[in-house]
Amino acid sequence: MESQNKNLIIATVLSVLVLIGWTFFFPPQTPPAPTETVAGSQPAVPTAEATETATVGALTTEAATEAAVAASPRIRIETPNLTGSISLVGGRLDDLSLKKYNETLAPDSPLVRLLAPVGGTDLGAAKPYYAVYGWSPAGGLDPALVPGPNTVWTAPADATLTPETPVTLTWDNGAGLIFTRTISVDGNYLFTVDQSVQNTTDAPVRLAPYGIVVRHGIPDSQRVYVLHEGAIRMTDGKLEETKYSNITKLDQVPGEGQAEILKGTENGWIGFTDKYWMATLVPADGAFTSVVKYTAASDLYQAEVRMPVTEVAPGASATVESRLFAGAKEWEVIKSYQDQGGISRFVDSIDWGWFFFLTKPMFQLLHWLHGAIGNMGWAIVALTLIIKLLVFPLARKSYISMAKMKELQPEMEKLKEIAGSDRAKMQQGMMELYKKNKVNPAAGCLPIILQIPIFFALYKVIYVTIELYHAPWLGWIRDLSAPDPSSILNLFGLLPWGTPEPHTMFFMLSLGVLPILLGVSMWLQQKLNPAPTDPSQAMIFAWMPWVFMFMLGSFASGLVLYWIANNMITFFQQYAIMAMHGQRPDLFGNIRSTFKRKPKSEPAAADKAKAAKPKK
């Protein structure tokens, strides 16, 4: 038994050291430094394959200066949720900020920028990230006769894109083909792009429309294994996620470079997703091809939608409609696009994780509670209470079993005296004792086991859903998606110095109020029962609340709040049920015994006898 206790202590200490060491020395991978623009390179002209599906060449970075970007003609975008502009060079959607979201809680914090132009530091310091549309020539049509990424479109001088006023871009190739692009936007984050071509020649032309979301390098954010960031697409009901690191490992496709191509027959969408934001192309229902592509020379990531080749007869015209989602992954908005807009499985663009069967209903309940209460922090507390009520029947059985085990303690002590060192006899006696009194010793573990997937599901909800982004609770907790900003290192703001930044080596020592309350709540829960008689087990139990306090201290405040609420509800449940069964916990007695200095234990009887035995 002694060796087992030592092994248990060593295993516990090593586990904690591994967790702490991993946090210190292996923080989440940071992205590489921004890549330089490739001077003098030009976008490749789209070509068409003989398979009647257009193929789009890789768009390379342009040699553009700040002055050139500032001088480029633009159309303003102003909606209740978006602000930005469309560049008439290429007709690109390349300047978009989200009005409802700031980068930090600071009063002068800039808006979150989603899309950013090439070389346009005057429009923001973000890496270039934009959507571009066009036509691929087919049937031997000269590529110079179709608009490309550098084509300068024309538009009315006073045009502004709003939910009430779409804008129309026009380009005449001078050879009988007139291209128009009508862009409209709703009050949230969905753009509709109608691409049209009018053929005034005396011969048919064959063209295929496409849309591309281009990202120059990966975003400057911290990557964590529990969250997907990278390409995401849905093709005929099948969801596929490809992390940025895996996009760079795609196989070489002839004529494409590093790419992965999927053909859809019914519906789908493709784009890039971040933790809270997303830019996604949505083609019209019907056949399409989606492509994920990487160009190593210029560090470009591309998500493409290619639509079938269309033949336009002389004197006729053709129009193709597609949509672009560019904005925040708000559950209610995305669900409306899925239910009313017909975008298949669009709500799955939110990373629900392995426990999606728990995270989805859990988030919907949290969302409803937030709407009813008006405060996300109290909504988390209410959700915790509801979860505890749902698992109460199991918890009740567990606490009743614990009370019965306590009642059997005197008989267990007698059994130990009878069995002595005979373990087999001891085990057999215990089983008979449990069977006779109808006690299940494993029943106490069931609520803990059930709580593990619930904890991970709620962690996922709190971590990935934007509804907790900058959501306040009370007082100093102004962002439930971030760790508690208070710190014991400056006496919670009483001393005039700052605290370590999150994800730094010393942040784990910067305990806030919520992590401390977490440790205290776990400690109080332990005091419902006397400390284990075995000194090794007693030491492990004594340290556990404070180890968890440090481990969970850097977690999101919303998750720590859930854990505190869960501990306190469990505390009252256990106290009430055990009292009802005649085993009222001696809470204050157990607490007092913790602080009493224990006298040195007397030598065991066997040791006394050995010591009294005269030496030969």
From TrEMBL:
Interacts with the Sec translocase complex via SecD. Specifically interacts with transmembrane segments of nascent integral membrane proteins during membrane integration. One of its GO terms (molecular function) is membrane insertase activity. One of its GO terms (biological process) is protein transport. Residues 74-365 form the Membrane insertase YidC N-terminal domain. Residues 376-578 form the Membrane insertase YidC/Oxa/ALB C-terminal domain. Required for the insertion and/or proper folding and/or complex formation of integral membrane proteins into the membrane. Involved in integration of membrane proteins that insert both dependently and independently of the Sec translocase complex, as well as at least some lipoproteins. Aids folding of multispanning membrane proteins. It comes from Paenirhodobacter populi. It comes from the Bacteria. Residues 597-616 are annotated as: Disordered. This is Membrane protein insertase YidC.
